[in-house]
Design goal:
- By secondary structure, this protein is an alpha/beta fold.
- It folds into two domains: 268 residues, Aldehyde Dehydrogenase, Chain A, domain 1, CATH 3.40.605.10; 183 residues, Aldehyde Dehydrogenase, Chain A, domain 2.
- Strands 15-16-17-14-13-19-20 form a seven-stranded mixed sheet, with helices on both faces. Strands 10-9-8-11-12 form a five-stranded parallel sheet, sandwiched between helices. It has a three-stranded mixed sheet with strand order 1-5-4, with helices on one face.
- It is globular, with a radius of gyration of 24 Å.
- The model has no long low-confidence stretch (mean pLDDT 95).
Length: 500
């Protein structure tokens, strides 16, 4: 087990208008390590009134921030990235300590945040519109991007630095001000980000951070008419509630929700490569990624050989302290997540064949957190464990006869985020690109591993069709304005024939 230094527990209020202040409730909650159960920090238990104060601050800060030249806004984001880069090891340890992912993935979470800030800071010199010819003489047509105003960002716990930065970075470079609510089990990671933005020179009121429950703080952000847009990443039930509540004010909502991501392995695949891919995809971050590989679809010709090798590798996985570099998989995020996963494992035992794992680890340090042995089921397509999102280290293995059946099985779920196929057949690879009903498809790579300069998102119940990151990152945080400049010195009428 890695050596842990005793650290004084810090208390964080809500960050509103550049100040850390207590909640009007006077109440606090604790963020605890999923590994040891130790208290990492204390946070204000926010209320609707706290959220309103944050909205007031964001609204007041909007005029000046939106008028700041975008390249100057980009410099602040770049400074924040530089600070994060200098503190990457420390920040990675915070991610692993608060969320539970192994230290290499904790640092990877931080690196993704750094990468995106560096990428999106450059968007301050573009914020591209378009120009196009007019149908009339001596007339110029173009589009420009305008910030939306005060935007609300609500994020999950599984990528407690990367996902917040996806939203914060794109919103800020576009000229918006923000009220931000983090997941209540990883508020420390985002608090550290807020401190970094303050150090980088972000003006007071531009980024406001309020901790508390989704039904109080979260719903005030969603329902308040002065918050003009919502960006949410999380589960489908919460996403539906947010979508419906925001619709009462005709408020745009960007949703990134669940996944039931398939990895297809064809009979001509590089099996060693595919094996590495599914192990990382299924059990990296203890399966707690929206892009995690939760279904392995194997061609019948390689099924027995591949499954045998997969089980042997899974059984040798080192599950333990995420700060220990020799650990392959840490705990799940908290007790509630663990109980939900175990309920699905019990369902799987009744409807499928348990091949390995299927139990909670106990004894010693395992009793302090919720550690689950990597679990693999053989199942037929259509079982609950093969169609419902589990969000844990549980993999369903399904046998298919050919490519067409593999595609049919892959698509026959309510989600459509990520997908993967391993094959040397270029024809099948290109068919998979077209036929897999997902927002992301990997060829000869696992279902995880998104890069920040490419759009991220999915179809069906994975979301409402928007995309984060990449070239489309600013779409959800800007309004397009069409501009016509007529320099003809006469009244010209579009779509009406000139009588002369």
């Amino acid at each position: 087990m890695a050596v842990r230094e005793a650290v004084a527990v810090k208390t964080y209020g809500n960050y509103i208008n550049g100040q850390w202040i207590p909640s009007e409730s006077g109440q606090w909650f604790e963020s605890k390590s999923p590994v040891t159960g130790d208290v990492l920090a204390k946070f204000a238990k926010g209320t609707r009134a706290d959220a309103v104060r944050a909205i007031d601050a964001a609204e007041a800060a909007f005029p000046a921030w939106s008028k700041m030249p975008p390249p100057k806004r980009g410099l602040i984001l770049l400074r924040a990235a530089q600070i994060m880069r200098a503190r990457k090891d420390d920040l990675g340890a915070v991610v692993s300590s608060e969320m539970g992912k192994v230290i290499a993935e904790g640092k990877g979470d931080v690196q993704e945040a750094i990468d995106f800030l560096e990428y999106i800071s450059g968007e301050g010199r573009r914020l591209l519109g378009e120009t196009t010819p007019s149908e009339l003489p001596n007339k110029f047509c173009m589009t420009i991007r305008r910030p939306i105003g005060v935007v609300g960002c609500i994020t999950p716990w599984n990528f407690p630095m990367a996902i917040p930065i996806w939203k914060i970075g794109a919103a800020l470079i576009s000229g918006n001000t923000i009220i931000f609510k983090p997941a209540s089990i990883t508020p420390l990671c985002v608090a550290r980000l807020v401190e970094i933005f303050e150090e980088a020179g972000l003006p007071p009121g531009v980024l406001n951070y309020v901790t508390g429950g989704g039904g109080t703080v979260g719903m005030e952000i969603v329902e308040n008419p002065r918050v003009k847009s919502i960006s949410f990443t999380g589960g489908v039930p919460a996403g539906r509630d947010i979508y419906v509540a925001a619709a009462k004010n005709l408020k745009p909502v960007e949703l990134e929700l669940g996944g039931k991501n398939p990895q297809i392995v064809m009979d001509d695949a590089n099996l060693e490569l595919a094996l590495d891919g599914v192990l990382f995809g299924a059990f990296g971050t203890a399966g707690q990624r929206c892009t995690a590989t939760s279904r392995l679809i194997l061609h019948e010709k390689v099924y027995d050989q591949f499954l045998k090798a997969l089980v042997a590798r899974a059984e040798s996985f080192v599950v333990g302290d995420p700060l220990d570099p020799h650990t392959d998989m840490g705990p799940v995020a908290d007790h509630a997540a663990g109980e939900s996963i175990m309920e699905y494992i019990e369902i799987g035992k009744k409807e499928a064949k348990l091949v390995t794992g299927g139990y909670r680890l106990t004894g010693g340090m395992y009793d302090q957190g919720f550690f689950i042995k990597p679990t693999i089921f053989e199942t037929k397509h259509g079982t609950r464990i093969s169609t419902e999102e589990i969000f844990g280290p549980v993999l369903s293995v399904i046998k298919v006869r050919d490519f067409d059946e593999a595609i049919r099985v892959a698509n026959d779920v309510e989600y459509g985020l990520s997908s993967s196929i391993y094959t040397h057949d270029v024809n099948l690879a290109f068919r998979a690109m077209e036929e897999l009903e997902t927002g992301i498809t990997y060829i000869n790579a696992p279902t995880i591993g998104a890069e920040v300069h490419l759009p991220f998102g999915g179809v069906k119940n994975t979301g409402n069709g928007g995309r984060e990151a990449g070239t489309s990152a600013i779409d959800e945080f800007t309004e397009l304005k069409t501009v016509f400049v007529d320099y003809s010195n006469r009244l010209q009428k579009a779509q009406i024939e000139d009588e002369k």
